[in-house]
Every structure is written in structure tokens, then in C-alpha cells.
Amino acid sequence: MRLVIQRVLNASVKINNELVSAIDRGLLVLLGIEEEDTETDVLYLTQKLMALRIFSDEDEKMNLDVKQVNGCVLIVSQFTLFADTKKGNRPSFTKAAKPNIAIPLYEKFIYETEKLLQKPCKTGKFGADMKVELINDGPVTIILDSKTNLKQIE
After folding, report:
1. Can you tell me the distance from the alpha carbon of 54 to that of 62, in angstroms, rounded to the nearest whole number?
2. Options 40, 80, 94, 148, the catalytic residue
3. Pairing assessment for the beta strands 72-77 and 122-123 based on DSSP bridges
4. How many CA atoms lie within 13 A of 145 on its CB side?
5. 141 in active site
6. Which of 74, 73, 85, 80 is nearest to 129 (CA)?
7. Is the bond preceding 139 in cis, omega lying within 30 degrees of 0?
8. What is the biggest distance separating any 2 CA atoms in the chain, rounded to whole angstroms?
9. What is the pLDDT along the chain (154 residues), one digit of tens a residue?
């Protein structure tokens, strides 16, 4: 499971020119799920996401997490995070999980994030052609991969 996390001043998702989700200050999370992912990946990454201290304190040091700044979270599924570009110029997405695996893990990720954040998250729509707009604050962009990060811990 892979996350691209962006600290934002605001972010939104439109589908067919219709606004479906929007947040102010918080985190835009692009979520990629691969075939081998399990609930262990979900639990690890949601805990890591909520504990990331990437918001500035009164001394302008990144010491605060999203909950401490009463921030919001917008979660957008993005299978292209598992693009394989080793051969040729057309990316392959064979590592990306099929919907029967990805949708339950996507929903579990949202549920666990909301539980830790203690408020609802905003989301895109799984599998939809979405237009995502954001103002990246900093810019601050962090990439987390459960397979890479969990290997480092073991």
C-alpha cells in the first residue's frame, strides 16, 4: 500500500464537473493498493498517517500532527501509484489490486483514519475519473509505502 500525502491549505475532488468533496487545511492522501496488501498494511499506514508531525507549531517547526491542528483529511484512491514503467513507455498496472481486493481495503482505510482522526474524512469515488485540485502548503509532500516502511521496522 502506498500513500502520497500532501499538506494542503485546501483540496477538492470533482467528478463530471460536480464538486463531490472538499477540505480546508489538512491532508490530501492519494492511496494506492496493490494485490498483496492486507489489513495489516491499512492499520500500519493509518496510524503512521495520523502521527505524522508535518504541521508547524508556534515556532514554525513541523511538530504537530493533523489532529492537533484540527485538520481535515481527503482520501482519493489512485491505482496509478503502482505503475510499472520498467519496460517501454506505456505504464503497466498489473501490481495494482483489482476492485474485489482494493475496495474493501480502501473502505477499511477510510474507517480507520476516521476512527483515529475522531471525525469524518472526505473522499473521492473509487474507480471514478476524478479531477483533484489542491493548494499544497509548503510544499510538503510525503510518500509512505507499507512494504518499504514495514521492512525497515522488522
Report:
1. 5
2. 80
3. parallel
4. 8
5. no
6. 80
7. yes
8. 49
9. 999 999 999 999 999 999 999 999 999 999 999 999 999 999 999 999 999 999 999 999 999 999 999 999 999 999 989 988 888 899 989 899 999 999 999 999 999 999 999 999 999 999 999 999 999 999 999 999 998 876 555 5
- For residue 102 the three cell numbers come to 482494493
pTM confidence score: 0.93
CATH of the domain spanning 2-145:
3.50.80.10
* Local structure of 95: helix, strand or coil: coil
Task: Name the nearest CA neighbour of 71 among 47, 52, 45.
Answer: 52
129 contacts 77 by C-beta, under 8 angstroms: no
> Could you tell me whether strands 62-64 and 55-56 are parallel, antiparallel, or unpaired per DSSP bridges?
antiparallel
Distance (Å, whole) CA 67 – CA 64:
8
CB 65 within 8 A of CB 47: no
- C-alpha 40/C-alpha 152 separation (Å) is 15
Q: Which residues of 4-30 are buried (b: 16+ CB within 10 A; e: fewer)?
A: bbbbbebbbbeeeeeebbebebbbbbb
